Amino acid sequence: MPTKRKGKQTVKIDSPISIISTASIVGPKEGQGPLGIYYDMVIEDEMWGEKSWEKAESKLMKETLSKIINKSGKALDEINYILAGDLLNQCTASNFALREAGISFFGLYGACSTMAESASLGAMLINGGFADNVVCITSSHFCSAEKQFRFPLELGSQRPPTAQWTVIGSGGVMLSNQGIGPYITYVTTGKIVDLGVKDSNNMGAAMAPAAADTIVTHFKDSGLSPSDYDLIITGDLGSFGKELCEELVSKQGYDIKSNYADCGMMVYDSQKQDTHSGGSGCGCSAVTLAGYLYQEMKKGKYNNILFVGTGALLSSTSAQQGESIPGIAHAISIQNKFE
Amino acid sequence: MPTKRKGKQTVKIDSPISIISTASIVGPKEGQGPLGIYYDMVIEDEMWGEKSWEKAESKLMKETLSKIINKSGKALDEINYILAGDLLNQCTASNFALREAGISFFGLYGACSTMAESASLGAMLINGGFADNVVCITSSHFCSAEKQFRFPLELGSQRPPTAQWTVIGSGGVMLSNQGIGPYITYVTTGKIVDLGVKDSNNMGAAMAPAAADTIVTHFKDSGLSPSDYDLIITGDLGSFGKELCEELVSKQGYDIKSNYADCGMMVYDSQKQDTHSGGSGCGCSAVTLAGYLYQEMKKGKYNNILFVGTGALLSSTSAQQGESIPGIAHAISIQNKFE
C-alpha cells in the first residue's frame, strides 16, 4: 500500500501544500447575507452586464480566477493546472470562463461537491510532484440553475420548506508547494451513496447520507476524532440535511454536535432572506471557503477545519425518469500547522 | 520545478504504471464496424432491456466496469478510485452506473476527451503514491446524445457531411502500479482552445485546433518527435477534423502524416455505415483504446502510442446563445517498455 494512503478512502498529504490565495465574487443577495463582509466583490445584479444568466455565471468565474491569480503574486506561467466545474449542462460556466486562460485544464463534475473535489485533486497533484501551483475553482448561479433544474423563474413557483437557494457566486483557491498555510493535510474522497431519496426539493436529505459516510470514514481512516477539529463544515445540506447528517454520524458513534456547521446555513439569514432550508450550489461552499473560512483561519479563529463538499448527482432527466438522487461528499482537512 | 514536470503542460510518469485490464461494450452498429472483433461484448439493441436510453447508457458503463474489475483479478477493496464522466447533463450516465460500486469517485467532465483525462489523472494519482489501482472509464450513447444535443431522433433530421455519429459504447481501463505494461509514460494536459467555430455539426473542426495544440506541445515539452511513436491517434476528429489537425501540426513544423490516425475514422466504415465524417462521443476513443489499441499493443503491432482525447466543450444552451465551441485535448503516451 502506498504510504500516503490511510485506510479505505483517505490520503495524507505529506508535504506542506498551502492555500496561498483565495477569491470570491457573489450576487446581491449573498452580499447582503451574514458573510457579506468576507467576499472580495458583490455584483449589483444577477446579469452583471451580460446577455444571459449563463454568461453572467461564466463572468463570475473568470473574474474570480483573475483575482485569485492577482492575489497570489504568481505569474500565469507558474500555474500548472486549473481544476474546475459547475452545475450547468456540460459545465459550460467553467469552459467559457477559462477558455482564454491558456492553462492546462481538468474539467470536473461533482455537483455542489466541486470545491472540495477540485481541492482534493489539486493538493494531490502538487504533493505528487506534478505541479507547483494549481487553481481550484467553481461557480453557481441561482437563475441559471433554477431555469435548468426546476421551473422558469417567471412562474414564481412556491417553494417547500426543504427547498434551498442556489448561491450566485464563484469562489476558488490557489494551492502551492510554497506558502505558510493554511495547509491541506488530509483528503478523504467520497463514494456515491444513494438511499433512495427522490425529492429534488429536498437535496439536503439526499446528500446527508453521503456527507455522514465521508465524515465517519474520515475519522476511521485518519484516526482523528471530532475534537481534533475546531470546525467540521459541510457544503450545502441546509437545515434539514444538517440535522439528518448529525444524526447519521452520531449513530456511528461520533458526536459532532458541538463543532459542526453547514455553509448552506451560514451563507444567508434564512429568516430574513426567505431562503428556506439554506443556500446550495457549487458556489455555496466555495465562497464560504474562499471568504469566511479562509480569513478566519488566517486570523486564528479556526486552526483545524474539516471541509466537506456535498453534491447531489441528479439531472432533470434522471428526476423525470423516476430515479432517486445519488449523493457524494468529499472531505479535506485544512490546518494552520503542518505536521 | 518538480522534477516530474517537462515543459509547460507535460509530466513524465516516472514509475511503471500499467494498464492491467480493459473492457468495452458497444452497440450493434459499432459491433458491425471494422473494430467489431476487438470489443468484449456487443449489445443487441440500443435499449438493452432498459426503459430509457439514459438508463441503457448507465448499464453499459456499469457492466463495463464489472468486466474491467473481473479481468484485472483485483478485489473491489484494492481499487482506490474510479475516475469517470460522460456527455449527459450532470454526467448522470456515470453517476448512476457507479452508485453501487462503493469506491471513491472523482467525477469528470471533459466531453469526448474524458478517456484521456481520466487516464491522465489516474496515472498521476498512482505515480504520486496516492493509489495502487484506479479505474478510468467513460461512455456515450447515440440516442441519448442526439436527443440532448441536437434533435429528437423521430424527426429524422438530415445530417451534413461534417456530422459525426455518437458511439454507443462504454470503455475503460484499470491502471496499476503492478503489471507488465503497456505503461502510461507521459501526460500532456490540454488547455482550452477556441478559434470561434460555431457549427455544432462540425465538431471535428472545433476540436482540431485543440488537438494540434496538445500534440505540438507534447513534442516540445517531452523532446520526443513524431517518429518516436508507431501511432499518434486522436479521439474523434473525424475525417474533416483529422485533415485540419494534420495541417495545423504541420504548420508548426511537425510531420505526423505517416503515423497519424483518428479513432472516429476507425470505429465505423463510414461509406457502408453512413456515418459521414466518423464516430464521436466519449465512448469513441474509449472503446478504441480498450479494444483495438490495447490488444494490438499487447500483440506488439504497436509499441509506442500517443493517445489524444479530444473534447468539444459546448452545450445546447451555449450554442443557442450564439457561443462558439471551445475545444480541449489531453494526450497520454502509452508504451510497451518503461524507461
Automatic annotation (TrEMBL), chains A, B:
Q: Which InterPro entries match?
A: SpoVAD, SpoVAD_sf, Thiolase-like
**UniProt cross-references to Pfam families, sorted A to Z:** SpoVAD
Q: Name one GO molecular function term.
A: acyltransferase activity
Protein name in the entry: Stage V sporulation protein AD
Q: Which organism is it from?
A: Pseudobacteroides cellulosolvens ATCC 35603 = DSM 2933
Phylogenetic placement of the source organism = Bacteria, Bacillati, Bacillota, Clostridia, Eubacteriales
